[in-house]
Amino acid sequence: MLNTQRAQEIAASPIMANVTYQEVPIYIQHVDEQNETARIYPLDNPELEQDVPLSQLMEH
After folding, report:
1. pTM (2 d.p.)
2. By the 8 A CB rule, do 10 and 59 touch?
3. Closest CA to 50 of 33, 34, 28, 35
4. Which Cys-Cys disulfides exist here?
């Protein structure tokens, strides 16, 4: 599970972090602190953007 601060660090970093959502490698585009969600997309399908709870993201 990612906390808000770590998710923001990953989103701002030029280095790709190994983060998954439902076991799928994803890229974090934006973090919404108030709602504790992140705008993400699967690395293999950039057009499939979605907002998900930070609690469902895993850093490996």
Report:
1. 0.90
2. yes
3. 28
4. none
